[in-house]
């Protein structure tokens, strides 16, 4: 008598259990890969959004100006720049396109962000600066844009003349050398942008030292510049005899006289 071909109930149950286990392992692997791709895409989008927002901010900072105004007592001057770890204000000269040419007050601040996690978005505001006394006062007239909408732990710093980062900067004698933008608690800044600043004042001692150097080499206070002017005006040796010149060709201030022109 021949045995019947097929699987017993126990063998069938074992096969079903092994198949279910294999499907579970495969499904978990697919889920992990999908989650990883999703996180990678989100980070890439966040990075691109931050890069684009900081690039737009960099353009404005490159046009920043060290504009000064008198204080209320009209005895001292202050530079129109102020900031702390939550944001800052500065003055920029915008070109004629797409905006009207002139000075603008810019404000970088934290705003409502979107996405998972903690933090804030990065906002940029701007208004025409027709009166320097209005800088830093009120919220009227600002146009607001979202630089970065993704939630991030933003923080700002300001480099002093020694290259040290400060957490705040008030209107004073000069602008900071650079502005740094951090996107987290630790790590290097995401962006560092140098700013324009006022030209350093030349002290009286430096001017006297410069005058002395010009006198020591026999060129006088003007140095080589005066030598060139004397040669052009006929007061120095330029290859011609000064006595052979016409009375009207004396150079210098005499060129504007009626007899100094031909």
Highlighted features:
about 260 residues; alpha+beta; 6-stranded antiparallel β-sheet; 4-stranded antiparallel β-sheet; 3 helices; elongated
What's the gist of this structure?
The protein is α+β, with helices and mostly antiparallel strands. Helix content is 29%, strand content 24%. The chain is built from 3 helices and 12 strands, in the order αββββββββββββαα.
Give a structural overview.
It is a single chain. This protein is α+β, with helices and mostly antiparallel strands and 262 residues long. Among the domains are: 60-194, no CATH class; 202-230, no CATH class. Helix content is 29%, strand content 24%. The chain has 3 helices and 12 strands. The protein has helices spanning 9-62, 204-216, 224-233, and strands at 64-65, 68-70, 77-79, 82-84, 87-94, 102-111, 120-128, 143-152, 155-159, 165-166, 178-182, 191-194. The strands form 3 sheets. Strands 1, 4, 5, 6, 7 and 8 form a 6-stranded antiparallel β-sheet that branches. A hairpin with a 6-residue loop joins β2 (68-70) and β3. The longest helix has 54 residues, at 9-62. It is elongated.
